């Protein structure tokens, strides 16, 4: 169930963050982090996922673990972890293994990318219990902190990894996407939580309007995914923030990435134009407010800042310029997005930029499996579509603002 997992993760993070000041005050550097979570998958499948040295984890961006045993060093595995189009070196030594039950390993700091150097004497352990219906995983991270930031990153990483591993095991157990009833249930649960968050901020009428606007926007992404042949896992609403449509795989080219990103505001362009027309004909304040909300939300999403749709579109448009140009844009957009979040007072968005910052700021050793870049004609068409959509929302906002 989404709600218990969400609350469990939140309470865990709050508890770990709360003890940081006391650790600093008492000079405690060595710390053990223990977290447990339930998985709706058989024990053997869950063990297969958590112990794999080669696996693609569910979620976005796609994460692939690809390590091989070192024949010259028993128990040592070395290779890479790929996150989207970035690659990080990763090496570890298996200290103890009880097949099907538990394992412990040491992160080899000198052979791993700096993104995995959380502290010295870093040991991880995982244990799996359960039966042929469900399972429970307990993970332990034991290390000596060298930097303050790692005290925040370890709990966040632990929660993120738990979510990825849980979803991967469930997908394998179901042999594909969640059934339609599960996708509808997840959308309803997350939608109710998001409605409640908007209700607390803006009241019932604005909250209902926002949910409707977000739903149309995400349906645009879903339609584009289906056109591109990307299996759709579902639509999830995010309290205080918005929503996200998630596919079971990533785009196979920059054309697909750009189209999927553009189609959220693109489909909403039709509904926004209709609302704008009806509001102008009837002078109905409710229709006017709904049209303005749709224009503002979709126009904001077109800003060329990660992780907004406009950021992904710009990455596709810059794909012909090479990886370094794309990375320079990502870094610039990250700081611009953070500054914009502070300026408009959206600290939920600021927190999201903080979470994605390490994957952008830490330069990978090499790029792997880059998506095929846009052709010149594709670049022109995507630029025209992006520019036309941005222009429409600017005109719509200027016409509706103050009415």
Question: How would you characterize the overall build of this protein?
Answer:
The chain has 403 residues and is α+β, with helices and mostly antiparallel strands. The protein is built from twelve helices and eleven strands. A hairpin with a 4-residue loop joins strand 7 and strand 8. Helix 7 packs parallel to helix 12. The radius of gyration is 23 Å and the shape is globular.
List the helices and strands and how they pair.
Layout: H1 2-18, H2 20-26, E1 30-39, H3 43-50, E2 54-57, E3 63-69, E4 76-83, E5 86-98, E6 102-107, E7 119-130, E8 135-145, H4 149-174, H5 180-202, H6 204-228, E9 232-238, E10 242-247, H7 254-282, H8 285-301, H9 309-317, H10 323-344, H11 347-361, E11 366-367, H12 376-400
Antiparallel strand pairs: 1-8, 2-3, 3-4, 4-5, 5-6, 5-11, 6-7, 7-8, 9-10
Helix pairs in contact: 1-4, 3-4, 5-6, 6-7, 6-8, 7-8, 7-9, 7-12, 8-12, 9-12, 10-11
Order of helices and strands: HHEHEEEEEEEHHHEEHHHHHEH
Decide which structural class fits the backbone: alpha+beta
* Span between termini: 44 Å
How many H/I helices? 12
């Amino acid at each position: 169930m989404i709600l218990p997992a969400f609350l469990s993760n939140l309470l865990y993070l709050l508890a770990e963050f709360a003890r940081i000041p006391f650790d600093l005050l008492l000079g405690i550097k060595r710390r053990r982090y223990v977290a447990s979570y339930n998985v709706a998958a058989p024990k053997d499948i869950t063990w297969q996922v958590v112990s794999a040295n080669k696996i693609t984890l569910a979620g976005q961006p796609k994460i692939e673990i690809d390590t091989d045993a070192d024949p010259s060093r028993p128990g040592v595995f070395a290779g890479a972890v790929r996150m989207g189009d970035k690659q990080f070196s990763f090496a570890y030594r298996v200290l103890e293994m009880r097949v099907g039950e538990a394992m412990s390993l040491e992160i080899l700091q000198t052979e791993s990318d700096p993104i995995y150097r959380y502290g010295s004497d870093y040991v991880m352990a995982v244990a799996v219990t359960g039966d042929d219906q469900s399972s429970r995983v307990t993970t332990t991270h034991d290390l000596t902190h060298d930097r303050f930031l790692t005290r925040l990153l370890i709990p966040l990483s632990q929660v993120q990894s738990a979510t990825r591993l849980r979803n991967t095991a469930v997908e394998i157990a179901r042999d594909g996407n969640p059934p339609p009833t599960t996708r509808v249930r997840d959308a309803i649960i997350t939608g109710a939580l998001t409605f409640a968050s908007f209700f607390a901020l803006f009241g019932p009428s604005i909250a209902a309007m926002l949910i409707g606007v977000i739903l149309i926007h995400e349906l645009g992404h879903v339609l584009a995914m289906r056109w591109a042949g990307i299996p759709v896992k579902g639509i999830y609403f995010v309290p205080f923030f918005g929503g996200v449509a998630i596919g079971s795989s990533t785009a196979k080219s920059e054309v697909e990435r750009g189209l999927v990103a553009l189609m959220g505001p693109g489909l909403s362009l039709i509904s926004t134009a209709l609302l704008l027309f009806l509001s102008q004909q009837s002078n109905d304040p409710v229709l006017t407010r709904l049209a303005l909300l749709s224009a503002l939300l979709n126009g904001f999403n077109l800003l060329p800042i990660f992780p907004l749709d406009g950021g992904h579109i710009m990455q596709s448009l810059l794909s012909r310029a090479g990886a370094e140009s794309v990375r320079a844009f990502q870094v610039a957009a990250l700081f611009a997005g953070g500054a914009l979040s502070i300026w408009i007072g959206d600290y939920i968005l600021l927190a999201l930029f903080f979470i994605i910052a390490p994957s952008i700021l830490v330069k990978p050793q090499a790029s792997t499996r880059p998506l095929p870049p846009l052709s010149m004609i594709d670049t022109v068409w995507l630029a025209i579509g992006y520019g036309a959509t941005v222009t429409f929302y600017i005109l719509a906002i200027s016409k509706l603002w103050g009415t």
